[in-house]
Every structure is written in structure tokens, then in C-alpha cells.
Amino acid sequence: MWNEDEDTEQCSLNQVVLWDKIVLRGENTKLNLRDMKSKYFFFDDGNGLRANKNITLTLSWNVVPNAGILPLVAGSGHVSLPFPDTYESTKSY
Known about the structure:
Number of helices: 0
Largest sheet: 5 strands, antiparallel
Shape: extended
Distance between the termini: 31 Å
Order of helices and strands: EEEEE
Oligomer: single chain
Radius of gyration: 16 Å
Strand content: 25-35%
């Protein structure tokens, strides 16, 4: 899942899932993420992300065992990018 993490005055960690995929045992685990669309509705309710110059995306996953704890595995590396100064409005038809 792709997560956006950011520290704010109100919270030391802000995180949201933008996309996820269930991969079953034996399936091809190579992910092609080019031109990937957000799977979940995402909005900046307080406009705190607008013009933020350091939004960090990371990849992490859960391995669901037959029994026992559900570990969260973090991938190595991350991508940081700026958010735009203005948001684009969507047209309603």
C-alpha cells in the first residue's frame, strides 16, 4: 500500500492508504505502478497538504499468516515530492 506520511503540530505522524492490492500465494508479485490511480477517495480536508514541499510516499505490506500475528513489512526506500500550490477542480456532469 502507498502511504503518505507527514508530521504536523497536531500529530507526529499523519498517514493514509492511497492504494492496495491483495496478492495470493503463488501469484506474480511484480507490481506495475505506472499511471496508477488512487484506489480510495482522497481529499485534503484542511488544505494542509497544498504547497507542502515534502510529501513522502512509502510502500509497505502485511503478510497474512495461517495463524499468529499480522506483521507489517516496510519496503526499503521512499519517494518525496511536493504537492501543487493550487488544486484542480473536477467537473460534475
